Amino acid sequence: MRRAPGWLGLVVLAGVAFASAGADYQTQWPLAVPDGNAGMYRVSLDAGVYATARSPWLDDVDIVDARGQPVAAQLFAPERPGAAAPERVPAPWFALPAATVGAPADLALAVERAGDGSVLRVQAQASAATAAAPVATGWLVDASAVEASIAALVVDWTGARDPFEAAYRIEGSDDLREWRVLQPRVVLLDLARGGQRLRQPRVPVEASARYLRLVPLTGAEGLVLTRVEAELAVGSAPSPAPQWRELDAQPSGGTARTEFVYLLDGRFPVDHVDLALPGSGTGEWTLYSRESSDAAWVRRAGPWVAYSIGRDQRSPPQRLAAAVRDRHWRLVAADTQAAAPVLRLGWHPEMLVFVAGDAPPYRLVAGSARTSRAGSPVAQSLAAIRTTRGEDWQPPRATLGPPAPLAGEAALRPARDWRAWLLWSLLVAGALLVAWFSASLLRTPRT
């Protein structure tokens, strides 16, 4: 009886030790972090990671420390994890005389432009009526290289008095001759009181124009611009070009068909589709996909007309409504095709954001049928950091090293549920212990 509790304790300890075993993944990539004290990092997933992952939700991709223990990590959309910061591009600017406060501008502008419309040099001279009064400084912003609607201008300046508040009228033009009012009054300010500071360097535009003019209204004396950036409207920033996987149709005994089946070699987040037709041709197509070979087909795009005429005339890629990680794809043609087209699936790399622990270096691991990434509130932590560092703050970017095998193909075989076996073993052992104890009591003579 005195030995039984000790034996039972060994069984429990063995179960605890087994439960604390490390994750089992197929492949690992070392991570290089730029700043060891940042605390939070982001890493862009490459084609090798997607080719290794097996989970349709990509939860078999994780970050582990030097001890093999996972750290807090969360998957984010491509390019910008969490709340996306607005896209900003630098814009050239030129100083020019402006009207006196409260009077309209009357300027003679001599502008030298390049062949693409960009401004090279500006010479401005005020009329006699305007020059007779004190003149403030206006600014001409060359936005001819911005191929999107401009949400705002973000500027920086020197030479202004302290405290500073200046009002401007924003005008727009496409030819430097005809101007229209875009914003009747915007304000730049820099105020300080009691150790606190309020600075407003952003002025709204909310329009599309090749050239912008800031006409001073009040308080602009002495201000000299040192930086101007055009903030693009939400949805106007040009999207990065997708990366492509080119797939050949699966072999078939027929020579002329209307359906072609393809197999994708990874869990890529496919959001674009394109066809490479053999030679010149045209046709109407519908695209389907499914998760497994026994699942139902789901229509993803089309019907749309894809064509290839000559060397340069090709139909544009089709954008899917949402990213799809399916492995099986099917093209259906409206008419019989003599040859199968090459299916091009486009994708954008996602970001895995993780919180560094106290045991560097770190590794990215992927490919497992045994374990998965645990849920972590990384998004909430990222939002809290941005309240102090600014909405456009991003974690430093970590980079992937060369891949190396970890558990190999063994990680892709489902592990036995040892926890269930252990639980049943403990229950059976407890029942045997109770039976043995009861039998002992029955054999003991009554006193």
TrEMBL record:
Q: Which residues cross the membrane?
A: 421-442
The alphabetized UniProt keywords are: Membrane, Signal, Transmembrane, Transmembrane helix
Its domain of life reads Bacteria
Concerning InterPro entries, the annotation shows:
DUF3999 (IPR025060)
A Pfam family of the record is: DUF3999
Q: Where is the signal peptide?
A: 1-19
Name of this protein: DUF3999 domain-containing protein
Task: Tell me the organism.
Answer: Luteimonas kalidii
